Fold each of these.
Amino acid sequence: MKIVVTSIFVDDQDKALNFYTETLGFVKKHDEPAGEFRWITLVSPDEQNGTELLLEPNNNPVAKEYQEKLFAQDIPATMFGVTDIEKEYKRLVERGVRFTTEPTEMGEVTLAVFDDTCGNYIQIVQQ
């Protein structure tokens, strides 16, 4: 068994698609109509056949509350791995990304947290 798709709730699919592709650098894999919303998945440019990230609309009240409570408590919704966190941090800051936690060593990993502008904090980590 392997993880094929994982999702993140977003408050605006178009804004999220733009941020995750144009700012972060993910690649759009699927963008299909799904009722009043769309099935939008992204992949890493380095692993285009790897795990897909679904930009899930938070229109369900439970999803919206879950997302808002994580955000209010400064809890990242998910974590992305990077090879060089200092380089990635600088690249994203130059693109206007707002970090709530600068690169910080935590044992054997270094992590940083940023606001995805779509209702989530995202953690990047270098192992």
Amino acid sequence: MPTHGFSPTHTAVLRPKLVIRHAPGNTMNQLASIRIFAKVAEYLNFAEAAKQLGISNSVVTRSVATLEEHLGVRLVNRTTRRVSLTVTGQLYWERCIELLRQLDDMDECIASAVEQPTGSLRIAASSLYATTDLPDVLAAYRAQEPRMSFDLTVFDNMSDVAASEFDVCFSAERHLRDSSLVCRPLAQTRDVIVASPDYLARRPAPSTPGELASHDVLVASDAPSRYWEFRDAHGTQRVVVRPILNIQSPQVVKRAVQAGLGIARLSRSFVQNELANGSLRALLGDVTLCGDERTVWLLYFGQPHMAVALRSFVDFVVERYRLKPLESKARSDVRVGPVQHQSSNTELLWGEIL
């Protein structure tokens, strides 16, 4: 996995709301005001700071004003067009960052002592996984550990993610790139060829793989784009496809298929709801699509002493998938495999259960 360059496709922040109550002279409220000021300084935008913290704009404005009154200095220059830090505000922000980091370390220390995870995890996830299993995983984990929050980055291509930017990563790929991270195979899903009823009303469904050559094909960038291979009792057949749409995002491809633009191959787990409700239909079910396997990987840095929060989350995810039923199609299906360290994808050894 590359460790340079990071341009995420989508970024979202999931964070429990922060409730502030002001009382003059209260140290805890001063710390709350410092946290709010630090967020304003980070974004240079009161509204965005309020959004990130889950509080109202008026609370942010009042909190910063109270902090300035307490300190007897102006920290922020505010005009109708822009927000900037004063020289004093810049110096104070730098000290605030140090203080808040120390407070977080103190919280983590106490959590470690009582073995209770707390804090925030930086999670990166492929759009395929983020729009299928991930919301349920995060909801289930936070129901168990309500003190945890998450910073989530969603990507379409693994090369867009730098390993230094996350604590844990979920990737759903056909082939895992060489990685110095710990690699845990969680589950396996398979591709299915789909089209919408509207498209099939205009163009009869292909009855053989060879007929795909005359159809409009849509391709996600991680799918084979020049040809698809099929296997039946008579052997293997390679069909050349000429995509009318080739785009990185599988989410866009799925939406285009639903709109009737053409035929695509997508992960079955990604389209299972649409197949169930009839908005998409599976095609060529009597032949085997070659190279259709995708593995869901859990990736993270291996450390001699992992943070309690990270260890707790990894253990939770591994156990959840160990108990979860699989898409069953072949003997190579994977539930949870052994921990892999500094392996290339040609060296990974599959296992059924930890």
Amino acid sequence: MVSYLIKSIVCSGLLLVVYHFILEREKMLRFNRFYLLLAMVFTLLVPLATIDMPSQVVEELVPDNIATVPTVHTAAVNAPLPVSRYDKPVIPDYLPWLAYGIISTVLLLRIGIQILTVLRSKSGRRIIPFETAKLVLMPDDTPTYSFFNFIFISQKAFDFEAVPKEILAHELAHSKQAHSIDILFTEVLLAFCWFNPLFLLYRRAIRLNHEYLADDAVLAGPTGVKEYQLLLLDTLLAHRTTALVSSFNYPVTKKRLAMMTTKINLRNQFIKKALVALLLPVLAFVVAEKTYSQQAATKKEPTSERKAENVPVSGNEAVSEAEMEDFFATIEKNTRYVTNKKGRTDPVTEIIPELENQLYTVYERMNDTQKQQVKAKNISVFRMKIPVKKAPTPEIFENWKKPTVFGVWLNGKRVPNTELNKYKYSDIVEYWHSKLYGAAKKGRIYKYQLELTTNDYFDKTYEERVNDRVIITRAGWIGTKPATIKK
């Protein structure tokens, strides 16, 4: 979570700097409007994205006498035992979330109250259609402002036709361009993302850009720039309105006055838009979470094992007919049939390791024709390689601690990602992960299922795993052997 907050704030700061120094001075007001809104969403979502990165493949040297010397990574073997980190008081996990929820709720209630205040102010008032909007006549000297398609003006000023047409055109531009949607969206986003103070600057930039757009709409008519600027300066001391509405009395700044006389430079605009288009994917790549795939390392296998597993079988060699019959009979004898939830009968083969090894020896002696007979009966015979230790890099190990990316199984047991804080990267000597798809992702927040083995557990189970590497199944199933099929 801390990593996400840092990345989100840094990303929002960089995009704000780009806007301030590159985009803000250009008169491409609609582009800037959507850039600011997109930047806020971008900084919240991109740190959650994940990119699969290939890990560096390292050649592993496996000694010829691996059966008697099972370790190949001395750093992992000599690593210290896991050290517990529970000697310090730990803040309950729910407390930060509770504080976050309370603050967000208060801010959302504030927004709700402001909306009700604005809507209630038009209750019982005289409403007059005005082009695509509606004029709400207020009984007091209310400054002119708009909220969605409602424009609130003083009834007294309206009756005496004292409302300048430029003010009405300004508020009508706010209404037509749906600036209230931007304002409400920004306020709600701030309620949930109050931890990012830079969003306050985004809100200010968005509101100022709204004024640029409304001013530009007014100046597109017959009103002169100087005349309009004098009208704006006359409203400097007017009363301010609630934060959710668009008002003609929005603070007049040098930037706002300068934008009215800024000339459009299409060449500069094109270059700056192109820079933004290049910046966003680069920034997304830098900020996004990176997961490193565990590519199989190039291994120099032991000579004796290589000879045993890769003995060439000539087309003339074959096992006898009696051995073939005994091969099939043994598998059938050790197969039971179960009915699954869909009512289909599935074979489950349960063979002790010693017998599996004997059957594999027979299978290796078969010629291609006989192996095809085995395959035709939906029997799969497979022998896994000897397990080899391989410690992850520190960077990969730190990646595994992210619960939104990885679900962790340690030594065959599901554990929370925080359990890895008890270990060093060198304590892990075997690992693999698989990506979840479709129904497998239902009810899970993580994207990868991660299997880890510690150094001690590897040594404890090594002999058993070396002797139990043969997998014989029916119906063509090949994979990691479930522990339940062992006798």
Amino acid sequence: MSRDVPATGGDPVPSIPPISALRSSRATARPPVPTIRVPAARAIVDCGVYVDGNRLRGKFTHSAALAEVRARGTGFVWVGLHAPDAHQMNSVAEVFGLHELMVEDAVHAHQRPKLEVYDDVLFLVLRTVTYVEHDSISTAREIVETGEIMIFLGRDFVVTVRHGDHCGLAGVRASMDADPSRLARGPSAVMHAIADHVVDSYLAVTDLVERDVDQLEEDVFSVRQVDVDSIYLLKREIVELRKAVAPLGAPLQRLGQEASLGVPKEVRRYLRDVQDHHTIVAERVTEFDEVLSTLVEAALAKVAVQQNTDMRKISAWVAIAAVPTMIAGIYGMNFEHMPELGWSLGYPAILTVIAVVCSGLFVTFRRNDWL
């Protein structure tokens, strides 16, 4: 313990704290680094106001767009965001009155396709897929890449949040802007257009994946050496594709049948058509999975047969090599009284016996397809 030491002819000198304590106090005294909050506008890709199916000219913030619609008493707002953070999503949620659980899902993503209802707001999650081009299935590292689109559907607004670089909605918005009659049906028409776009992309991806499955099937039954790892890779990608596609069936069925969700009857008809296309995709994915399971079994059986053939060849050559090895081992013994040791033709006779026996074994194994 430090103590005050009196100075000569003066007041006591206070003790000096150690340097480590000074450093610690300075560290604790530093103010926390402020978190930089990026405004919501940085995450908003597009924001449009639609009245009677036509987009109003000019640029709007998400809050100004909703205020414009509610001041008019007609129309709706379509806001598109890309990978917003918590602050940006909360800013949008405050304007449109979105539930905090929906906001949490939109920020963290990695959700299964689902449909939830929060008061008068529908929350639909779609998984997007894209095909990763590759020269050969044996050199590919990824075949299917997934992303997400989340749709918040209200009476006078639709908010879309997407995660992933391949799932842009610019084409969907452009086609909708060019067809005011569809936009005149309200925000649910936008939801249908997005769902239809996503399911159509499923069909395109399954067409390309089918090409890889057919190539693997041809290789398994024609190529001598089967690359089992390629089959496992494609099967893993099919499992990922199935997880993205299959769960969407139930939400589409609800949207197409339940009038209580507030979706207009005409839009529900179009959603049932999307559901039919989704059923086709789901059946194709299931078929791919079954085919690949069969290919795995066939490839493993082919490998087992090949290993059995190799073992038979090895065993045949071992049997042939055992003959000269045995004879050489016997005559390598240092005994005096062994047959034919004193015979001048003994050595060529033994070589002849070895050649005849080995040739006989070779012919026998060859006839039995062991060699």
